[in-house]
Amino acid sequence: MLLTRVLGGVGRVMIAAGVLILLFVIYQLWGTGLRTAAAQNQLRDEFRARQEQVQPATTAPPAETTTTTTPPTTLEDPNAPAPTLAPPTPAGEIAPVRPGEPLGTIRIDTIGVDFQIVEGVDLNWLQDGPGHFPGTPFPGQAGNAALAGHRTTWAAPFNRIDELAPGDTITVETLQGLFTYAVVAQPGATEAEPVGHRIITPTQTEILDQPTDAGVNTITLMACHPKFSAAQRIVVVAELVGNPAPTTAKSVESEAASDTATELLTESEGLVGGDPDARSHAIGWSLLAAGIWLVTYLIARRWSWRRVGKWVAYTAGAAIFTVPLFLAFESINQLLPAGY
Hints:
By secondary structure, the chain is an alpha+beta fold.
C-alpha cells in the first residue's frame, strides 16, 4: 500500500513537471510574442508622437523625389549612373534617441516584417523589437547601420531573413523620412542560386565596420543561427537606394553603450539571456503560482463530492494561476540562454 502511494505520488509529480515544461516551451515560442506585441504598440505610439513633434519643422519633398524600390534606369545611355534621390530632410533638430526608445520602423514585405526599431541591442531592448547597434549610424544615414533581432522568440522579427534574395527591398522609416534598401548578393551567390545572406562566427565583428567606398551606404541585419541556437550568426546586407540623410547627434547614453554593443555580438549570453537579476523575480512568481495551485487543489478536494463544484474550483483557480505562471516563465526565460 505504501509503495503504491509513493509511486502514485512520484507519477503525479512527473506528470505535473512534464506539463510545466511543455507550457514553458509554448511560452517561449508564442507567449514571448505577446509581450513583444504590447511593447511594439507602445513604441509605435511613441514614434508617432515624435513624428508629430518633428513634422512642423520638416520640409516634405515633392512626390517625385521620394525614394523608390529600385534605382531608375536610363534608356538613352545604359552606362550612365542612376540618379540619386533625396529623402526628406528635417529642417529642425531631432532629439537624440536613448537606449530603449523607438528610432523608426522596418518593413520587409517579402517576409512579412513590420516592426518598430529600438535603440540598443541589450536583451531588454531586443525583447521589444529589432535593436540598433549604438556604435553604427542610424538607418537612412551615411555609412553602415546595423540591426539585431530574434529569430524564434519575442515575435521573431528576423525569423525568415534567410529567405531574402538579392534585389528584395527593405524599407525603413525614421524621423528623417522613408528610405529604401536593396538586398545585395553575398559571396558565393550565382544567377541560378541567388543568396542574400551569409553565415559568420560570433567573433566576426567586421559586420559592424563602416564602408570604405564613398557613396556606399548599407544596412546590416544580424540574428542568431541556426534557429534555436547561438552558435553562429546570419547576416543580410542591403544598399541604400538614393541619397543618405544628414547625420544626427547621438545621445550620451547611446555613446556609452557603443563599447558594449560589440561585446554583445561576440558573447552568446549577451544577446540571448543570462540575466542574474531575474532570479529573485523567478523564485517569487513561482512560489506565488505554486501557492495559488495548492489552494485551488485544497478547495477542489473539499468539494470533491460535488462534481460541478470541483471543476468550477479548478477552472477559476487555473485562470488566476496563469498570471503568476506567465510572469514566472518570463523571469526564468531571462535566466536561461533561450531567447534566440
